[in-house]
């Protein structure tokens, strides 16, 4: 099967998942609880994850899966075969609160490299797609990153962990950013933040997230012309493209100054290598 065919099928599944999300929102037909202390999850997260898992198992039984709710075990990251990386609802808190910044994220990887990805935002009517080496698209139209080349003109997105104890060290980064850039956005969906960088709505993004949050969006941003990488060296044994700690993504001219600004903020906090 070609990457184009895989992307077509993944996009179809993402849209079907989005329809389930919209229906649940309209009918208010979902319950929620908390996992790992403060991390909210709804039964629609689980239902969509189940729907996608069953469809992929039926059509691609040879592939492994890494998904937020049903298959979060990260030992599959190093698989040499195909790997689906899925977030059934990226932006669960937004979804539960009636906000629109919500997406289904599906990526397919081979030997640790992201080959194709789709991020579908059903409440926004937007579907972002990309194929490695072939470009990125929004609703079928080619997209590219902004040409912003000064941090003072940059609109930057980030996010914060659910664990409140992990937040204070990140305030140094946020403070440094607010003193230099145009402004900061915290939209609640890593996948859509990356897609907004891809189409030039945002100029840069940094955060530490899980593989299912960023895999598809990272490829989309890169294929749209963004520079992608990490603030610090990735550990051995984990593919760089699936390592979610300290991701830095920006239009080409901003990547180096953004990285330098974050490194300086970490050094001033006395906690380098957060």
From TrEMBL:
Which species is this record about?
Answer: Cobetia amphilecti
Query: Might you give the EC number(s) for this enzyme?
Result: 3.1.3.25
Tell me yes or no: is Ribosomal protein among this UniProt entry's keywords. Answer: no
What is the top EC class of this enzyme, as a single word?
hydrolase
Family membership: Belongs to the inositol monophosphatase superfamily.
Keywords tagged on the record: Hydrolase, Magnesium, Metal-binding, Transcription, Transcription antitermination, Transcription regulation
Reaction catalyzed: a myo-inositol phosphate + H2O = myo-inositol + phosphate
Q: What is this protein called?
A: Inositol-1-monophosphatase
Against Pfam families, the record matches this protein to: Inositol_P
């Amino acid at each position: 099967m070609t990457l184009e065919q895989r992307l077509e099928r993944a996009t179809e599944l993402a849209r079907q998942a989005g329809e389930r999300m919209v229906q649940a929102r309209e009918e208010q037909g979902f319950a929620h609880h908390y996992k790992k202390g403060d991390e909210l999850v709804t039964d629609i997260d689980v239902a969509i994850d189940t729907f996608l898992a069953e469809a992929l198992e039926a059509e691609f039984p040879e592939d492994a899966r890494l998904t937020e709710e049903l298959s979060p075990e990260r030992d599959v990251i190093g698989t040499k075969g195909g790997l689906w990386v899925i977030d059934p609802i990226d932006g669960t808190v937004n979804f539960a609160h009636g906000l629109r910044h919500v997406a289904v994220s599906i990526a397919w990887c081979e030997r640790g490299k992201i080959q194709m990805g789709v991020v579908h935002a059903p409440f926004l009517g937007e579907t972002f797609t990309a194929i490695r080496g072939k470009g990125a698209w929004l609703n079928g139209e080619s997209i590219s990153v902004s040409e912003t080349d000064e941090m003072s003109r940059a609109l930057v997105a980030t996010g914060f962990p659910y664990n409140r104890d992990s937040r204070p060290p990140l305030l140094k980064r946020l403070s440094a950013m607010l003193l230099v850039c145009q402004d900061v956005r915290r939209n609640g969906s890593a996948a859509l933040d990356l897609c907004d960088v891809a189409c030039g709505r945002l100029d840069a993004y940094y955060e530490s997230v899980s593989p299912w949050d960023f895999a598809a969006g990272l490829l989309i941003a890169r294929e749209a012309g963004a520079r992608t990488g990490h603030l610090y060296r990735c550990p051995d044994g984990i593919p760089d493209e699936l390592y979610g700690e300290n991701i830095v993504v920006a239009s080409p001219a901003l990547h180096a100054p953004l990285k330098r600004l974050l490194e300086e903020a970490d050094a001033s906090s006395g906690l380098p290598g957060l």
